[in-house]
Design a protein that fits this description.
The chain is of the alpha+beta class and 794 residues long. It is built from 30 helices and 18 strands. β7 (281-287) and β8 (290-297) form a beta hairpin. The protein is elongated and about 140 Å long.
């Protein structure tokens, strides 16, 4: 039997699926203990027989009495059928259904007010039984560490990894599909799909990234021009015969053309003449009215006359002049003679550069970093290619590239060179292939199964290094992590502690802080916040960024300086610059740089008093105690309220009157609303001294602010000071568990399962014994079995 002395801690540690956990804690230790002892206690069901007996003897009668009249197969209210199985395994297979039912029972939503009343003692008993039977787990030495779904890099991980791998800060274009969110985060494997459109974007991105990273000669451009003689522009005296241009006297024709690049072109004139006199027909060729050449045309049939022409990029005029007209009239026995010139066609052709041309100017750092070996007298192109590809592919795949992978990429590079490409161009193409490989796009881990004894296997050292870096950096491992993985020393306790401390103090941890904190605290909603411009003219996009930066800097300080995580609730400091200090009414801060500010007294302190969070939990024209209370339940206490019942009008649209507080009281008169609002509203009202954009106020709508509230169980709070005190002392355990669960979810990239309760309990206990230090939380997560091992999906 559980002792009455321990019941309080048991209830506190029920897991995040219990939306009314805050309510239970607020009832007080005496009442809970009395209630527990009054119903005789619940056995600690540690065996299958105990669980089976609890299901059949205790839970089934309760469900039949209070639930099954409305939720059986014949009468399924809300399409919810609670078929109570007789076997434990069948009950667990419907765990999701029973967890939803548990939330409804705990919140007081079920049974509804028009059904048979469920006494408090029986409600508690039913809740504990469902929880025990559905979530019972033996926290022994070989608990299932869970299975992480193979997943691709999300957008921020992709950008960070590309930056670390190539030195190019590539921002995914607007056409990139957005990342789906699961369990509150966008790095969850179960929801990160790879649609065809995204694959196309990866292909385009790979080409663009490597085009920036590796400098190669500009691609060869081909220019070709062909004009029939009849299409040339006439200057004077000409005729046309069968598409040919006839110059029968001194005359000139020309063409004007836009030349795309500097190069040596070949000019071909297809011409012939009616020959007469003592010299052949002659053409004067001019470029921009300057003579290039005088060309003899002795042919009497169409013949090609070709010579080189240096042309610069731009528009040019090529002129062709018949300069030696000859005519002799026939006299007596002397025949007449007439020299004429025929131009059948003019052609101009050139290419931008030779394939062997070299890159001019200094090479970018990314080029020198990636292509560290080049062909030379003692190094063949093939050998240099293998060296360069081996290193790049190994870093991109986050583990040593196999011989087969390197050979395949080397053959691709060789094909580029065989086709006339340079060595650098061949590396460019090979690297593009790496960037669209599943081994780069996905965080691939080799599947492993438990051994014959059922012991779950560890991921290998390279996979562990990737798990570590993507958790704390949101990016790939660096050379130091790779080296420790190669040496097999990364998991040594002291080495791992040093690495966790190093990674979190590194500037790259900013990427993780931004990603995790922005999603945990819902700061991304700040971009969509639109306070009414007339009421709040000082609120603009620049202020949004300052508010966001304040919260992220505050988060970073707690983590990087190994502060207690409880300071998220009661830390009496923040970081502001001069514009933000003026916004808050803080004196003595000058300049644009963010500076440390301590609050020795007053209302500010902790996340709940920061304007970023107060703004995202408000409406455009007013504060919202409901939104603020709900935010606290979800993100601070880990006890999200159940969804609002169907057919209940929104507060704004409901026919309610009076002040906000009076309207909420009227709203709670609906029994379906009361159970949730009695949890949310008091929390939100405690923050009413902060307006809709987070500024302190004493009055609202011409009346003194009323920040009083009574939590279920009779706990009275008045203002943010009382709220901060309640959360950081009486509700501290709930917050620590909530943050642990959210950070573990983010670190693993999967939703938590019932068997994760074991590791969460261990982490929470470890934090309690280490003054809740943030480094200890990070270390406890990376040392845990779910982080270091592969399990199975149950």
């Amino acid at each position: 039997m559980l002792s009455c002395d321990n019941v309080f801690q048991l209830i506190l540690r029920r897991g995040r699926s219990r939306p009314n956990k805050f309510y239970q804690r607020a009832m007080g230790l005496v009442f809970l203990t009395a209630l527990y002892c009054a119903v005789g206690g619940i056995p600690v069901v540690s065996s299958a027989d105990d669980l089976q007996d609890a299901l059949q003897t205790d839970l089934q009668p309760l469900l039949k009495t209070y639930c099954l009249d409305c939720h059986n197969s014949d009468s399924a209210e809300g399409d919810v059928v609670l078929n109570v199985p007789g076997a434990i395994d069948a009950f667990r297979r419907d765990r999701e259904l029973w967890m939803r039912a548990l939330r409804q029972v705990r919140s007081g939503v079920m049974p509804p007010s028009d059904a048979m009343e469920l006494p408090d003692a029986q409600r508690e008993r039913m809740s504990q039984l469902i929880d025990r039977i559905a979530n019972s787990i033996d926290c022994g030495p070989n608990v299932n560490p869970g299975q992480i779904t193979l997943r691709r890099l999300n957008s921020s991980e992709y950008r960070n990894t590309i930056r670390e791998l190539t030195g190019i800060d590539y921002v995914p274009a607007k056409g990139f599909p957005g990342d789906d969110v699961g369990y509150g985060f966008d790095n969850i494997g179960d929801v990160l799909s790879l649609p065809p459109l995204l694959m196309e974007k990866y292909l385009e991105a790979a080409e663009e990234i490597m085009g920036q990273a590796i400098k190669t000669p500009d691609p060869i451009q081909i220019f070709q021009l062909a004009r029939d003689g009849a299409s040339l522009v006439n200057a004077e005296r000409y005729g046309v015969s069968e598409g040919r241009l006839l110059l029968y006297s001194h005359g000139e024709v020309h063409l004007e053309e836009s030349i795309p690049f500097d190069a040596k072109y070949e000019l071909t004139i297809k011409a012939y003449g009616d020959q007469a006199g003592d010299e052949p027909a002659k053409i004067e060729v001019k470029l921009d009215d300057k003579q290039l050449k005088i060309l003899d045309v002795p042919a009497t049939e169409t013949t090609d006359y070709t010579f080189p022409v240096e042309l610069k990029k731009g528009t040019h005029k090529l002129s062709f002049t018949f300069i030696n007209d000859f005519y002799r009239e026939a006299k007596g026995d002397q025949k007449g003679a007439d020299r004429n010139l025929y131009i059948a066609r003019v052609e101009l052709a050139g290419k931008s550069q030779d394939v062997a041309a070299k890159v001019e100017g200094p090479l970018p750092e990314s080029h020198r970093k990636l292509i560290f070996a080049t062909p030379g007298p003692k190094v063949s192109a093939e050998d240099a290619s293998v060296k360069v590809i081996q290193r790049f592919a190994s870093r991109a795949f986050r583990r040593p590239a196999t011989r087969q992978e390197v050979d395949k990429l080397s053959r691709l590079a060789a094909a580029v060179r065989d086709d006339g490409g340079s060595f650098d161009e061949s590396m460019q193409v090979a690297f593009q292939a790496v960037l669209v490989s599943p081994h780069f796009i996905y965080k691939v881990e080799q599947p492993r199964k438990p051994n014959d004894a059922g012991v779950y296997p560890s991921v290998d050292d390279y996979e562990f290094a990737s798990r570590l870096s993507y958790f704390l950096w949101n990016s790939m491992p660096d050379d130091e992590l790779f080296a420790l993985a190669y040496n097999g020393t990364l998991r040594r306790p002291q080495v791992l502690r040093e690495q966790v401390a190093r990674l979190i103090k590194d500037s790259r941890s900013t990427w993780m802080i931004d990603s995790f904190a922005s999603q945990w605290l819902q700061l991304r909603n700040l971009d969509k916040a639109a306070p009414d411009e007339k009421q709040f003219p000082e609120f603009n996009d620049e202020l949004k960024q300052l508010l966001r930066r304040e919260t992220l800097t505050f988060f970073a300080a707690i983590v990087r300086y190994d502060r207690p995580i409880t300071e998220f609730l009661d830390g009496r400091f923040t970081y502001v610059n001069e514009p933000l200090a003026k916004y808050y009414g803080i004196k003595g801060i000058m300049g644009d740089e963010f500076q440390f500010v301590r609050f020795d007294e007053g209302m500010r302190g902790g996340l709940l008093t920061q304007a970023s969070i107060l703004t995202v939990t408000s409406n455009p024209t007013r504060t919202s105690p409901v939104k603020r209370g709900k935010w606290i339940l979800e993100n601070i206490l880990g006890t999200p309220p159940p969804p609002a019942p169907a057919n209940v009008p929104e507060l704004e649209r409901a026919e309610l009157t009076g002040t906000m507080r009076e309207r909420l009281v009227q709203h709670r008169e609906n029994p379906a609303c009361a159970s949730c609002h009695q949890l949310m509203d008091p929390l939100g009202f405690a923050l009413e001294n902060f307006d809709a954009i987070g500024r302190w106020r004493q009055q609202a709508d011409g009346q003194p602010v009323d920040a009083r509230g009574e939590l279920p169980g009779g706990v009275t709070i008045n203002g943010v000071g009382d709220l901060r005190n309640v959360l950081s002392t009486q509700r501290r355990d709930l917050f620590v568990r909530c943050l642990t669960e959210k950070l573990l979810t983010y670190a693993l990239g999967r939703g938590l399962e019932y068997y994760d309760k074991c590791v969460i309990d261990k982490i929470v206990a470890r934090l309690e014994s280490s003054e809740f230090r943030s480094l200890e939380l990070l270390l406890a997560i990376v040392e845990s079995d779910p982080f270091q091992k592969q399990g199975v999906r149950e």
